[in-house]
Amino acid sequence: MMDKFTFFWCLIIVAMTFFFIGVYKNFAVKIGYILWVNNRRHNGEGLGWRENLALLMPLPNRRVVVDEALLQRRIKNRSEFLWLRHLLIFSGFIVIFALDLFLTFAGHYAHHYFHYEYFLSGPGKGVLKFGMELSGAALFIGLTMGVIHRIVYTKAEKTYVELKLLLLLWLVTATGFLAEGIRLAGQTDDLLISSSFIMKPIAQWLGTSFSWNWQVLADGVWCLHATFAAAFFAYIPFSKFIHILSAPLGRSITQNGEYAYQKRQRISEGLL
Q1: Is the pLDDT of residue 22 over 60?
Q2: Residue 213 to residue 126: CA distance in whole angstroms
Q3: Residue 86 pLDDT grade (very low, low, confident, very high; cuts 50, 70, 90)
Q4: Residues 266, 158, 264, CA angle at the centre, nearest 5°?
Q5: 41, exposed or middle or buried, with CB in 10 Å at 0-12, 13-18, 19+?
Q6: Please, is 59 exposed, middle or buried when counting C-beta atoms within 10 Å of its C-beta (0-12, 13-18, 19+)?
Q7: Could you list the residue ranges that cross the membrane (predicted)?
Q8: Which of 36, 134, 159, 218 is the most exposed place for a label (fewest CB within 10 A)?
Q9: In CATH, which of 1.20.950, 3.40.1360, 3.30.70, 1.10.150 is domain 4-252?
Q10: In angstroms, rounded to a whole number, what is the distance separating the alpha carbons of residues 163 and 251?
């Protein structure tokens, strides 16, 4: 029988294959086309290689990338509520992803070369688990706000919010909490259980109320969680989310170029 980590890595291979296909098709090709159109008038005559490279491959404006691609300040112009939703989802996702990545690679691979005992079995692991629980809670609250708002205001929000992607990430987060709660229900003597300040009381209630095979159930829910996570990453480049990133990058690159001029002309003519 396949163990859960082998199952997980099989999912990762499949998900990353779809992810890179989508990134190439829906992001790299579009940004490449924008660069080509914007810079085809530059032939680099009389310029050094650095200046010529700067013309052919202009770097995105950092302020535009931060304000529009990351902080999404345009959303704030629409609604403070929507911007709060975005910040909860974005910050929660980034923090929990970074901490989980650290625990996974440090715990299963890097410990052969570096000593991370403080974070893998010592007090540091409790700090990391607390951080993951806190960021996961922020993510779950933001996603729940987003799902409810998207359903209530379907007509107004369908242009901006990808419901499938939102629901997938909600399921990833919910099953992550559920897997942790079920695991702790079978391991109530876990020394770091207090770090799971949200799932600890739920796990204790489950452990005293039901006599199930918690280890088997925890493995099953974990595999479900991993499946949703892989599906989420595979779907990202095929969703509207990729446009949220590519549009500000495109604008920052072309804001003073020929492509920007053509686009403004088309907008004024009602073609875009």
Answers
A1: yes
A2: 25
A3: confident
A4: 15
A5: exposed
A6: exposed
A7: 6-24, 82-110, 130-153, 165-186, 214-236
A8: 159
A9: 1.20.950
A10: 25
